[in-house]
Amino acid sequence: MSQQPIRRALISVYDKTGLEELAYGLAEAGVEIVSTGSTAARLTEVDVPVTAVEDVTGFPEVLGGRVKTLHPRVHAGLLADRADAGHRTTLEELGIGGFDLLVSNLYPFQETVAAGASLGECIEKIDIGGPAMIRAGAKNHSSVAVVVDPAGYDEVIEAVQSGGYELEQRKRLAAQAFAHTAAYDAAVATWFATTYAPDEVAVETGWPDFYAETGHRTATLRYGENPHQRAALYRGGGDAAGPGLAGAEQLHGKEMSYNNYVDADSALRAAFDFAEPCAAVIKHANPCGIAVGADIAEAHRKAHACDPLSAFGGVIATNRPVSVALAEQVAEIFTEVLVAPEYEAGAVEILTRKKNIRLLVVSPPDRAARSEERAISGGTLLQSADMVDAPGDVPSAWQLVAGPAADEALLADLAFAWRAVRAVKSNAILLAADRATVGVGMGQVNRVDAAQLAVTRAGDRVSGSVGASDAFFPFPDGLEVLTRAGVRAVVQPGGSVRDEAVVAAAEEAGITMYATGTRHFYH
Ligand SMILES: NC(=O)c1ncn([C@@H]2O[C@H](COP(=O)(O)O)[C@@H](O)[C@H]2O)c1NC=O
């Protein structure tokens, strides 16, 4: 029999959202309710008949709640397969009632850790009895329905009234239940490995001996990077309510594609590296323009001007609300995605004149809070995010290695170029003027070609521009491509064994060159 009537329910919930309505519905349908301590107290307060779990177990709730439901009378009731004659006989002989429904949610361990509670409080918020019950009921889904999310309470009432859940529904509920306890256990294990009981290597390096990433599917995508690839979006469990692209709200446009997400993420990374109003235009995860401006519309105008040809069909991110002026500009350009922290009144109406543009609202991503992951065959690489706060990222920490010191305006352009080059795939050379990119050489396998590409793209604008190189010049040749074309100042990490020759080339060309001591590869 696929449908399983609900006659007896065990309710043990920390989060009491929707509890009363659920209990009224169950009581009205004549379902017997068994509950733990404060869940039972709440139901009694609202006049719902309830049996205390202690009356079922014949054992008091003890040790400050550490032992409430951890009892054979509870677990046999959850684990007995009603289709198994032997199980039924055992329950009868022992006088144990079976449960048809378990409603439970767990102590808020993750929230307690996030709130900075003491280690002792965090330990106390590790739920033991709840996961044990949930896992028991979920294993025995042929007989028991397990509900772990208050959002499912309406469905519980519907099921009770219609004669119980179908087997397929109980299987799905069990799948959700195991996902719930798995994410919970992953959070506990991660906290032990990182904070409470890290091993020696973790203490020394910050990398725990255990790593778990759990997530919920929030979208299936039409396809992956190419039409023959399948793809979906999962939102990180630890990040569930957090900021970032995976939780962005889409206001308009077609469904986001896999490549849209990748490009929008690169665009956000670039735009939010700057404190001033900044716009980044991205294609294939590389910038075709980044600029800062007095306001966001000016920033976008400057970014777009870098390479209008490539900006066609691009993805734009801004680190400021989209103004009406910006909306008017973007509405004129074929744009796949615009992602921003907010849209000012009227901006969305202007942009939606374009049927296909995807408009996303995003809370600023907190990249520092997460390790960056990359799948490799058979494993995963983790690294801390490359932020713009490395020691050599502040111009005051740079070393002047050639030519005269830059004046304020030149230094501002160099500082802009140094930040912006981080958004360019290596090997990267970026040329800028007036705090806007004018030529980007990206993704080359040698630095000379990257320099040549940047110069070619900049065209006439190369003369008087400044250059940034994501890593040192291994030979003078790459730098010479820039100086011959008219670049007047360069910032680069330095540190090549041939630094002397590179500096000599800069001196000979009469340009200013700074060394940052910090590298920003981006692959
Ligand atoms: N120890 C136990 O036997 C036990 N059984 C259930 N719990 C949890 O206790 C909470 C409900 O308790 P109360 O009804 O007292 O608020 C639920 O989050 C449930 O997951 C337990 N608590 C922790 O492990």
TrEMBL record:
Pathway: Purine metabolism; IMP biosynthesis via de novo pathway; IMP from 5-formamido-1-(5-phospho-D-ribosyl)imidazole-4-carboxamide: step 1/1; Purine metabolism; IMP biosynthesis via de novo pathway; 5-formamido-1-(5-phospho-D-ribosyl)imidazole-4-carboxamide from 5-amino-1-(5-phospho-D-ribosyl)imidazole-4-carboxamide (10-formyl THF route): step 1/1. It comes from the Bacteria. Keywords: Hydrolase, Multifunctional enzyme, Purine biosynthesis, Transferase. CDD domains: IMPCH (cd01421). GO terms for cellular component: cytosol. GO terms for molecular function: IMP cyclohydrolase activity; phosphoribosylaminoimidazolecarboxamide formyltransferase activity. Its EC number is 2.1.2.3, 3.5.4.10. Residues 1-148 form the MGS-like domain. GO terms for biological process: 'de novo' IMP biosynthetic process. The IMP cyclohydrolase activity resides in the N-terminal region. PANTHER family: BIFUNCTIONAL PURINE BIOSYNTHESIS PROTEIN ATIC, BIFUNCTIONAL PURINE BIOSYNTHESIS PROTEIN PURH. This is Bifunctional purine biosynthesis protein PurH.
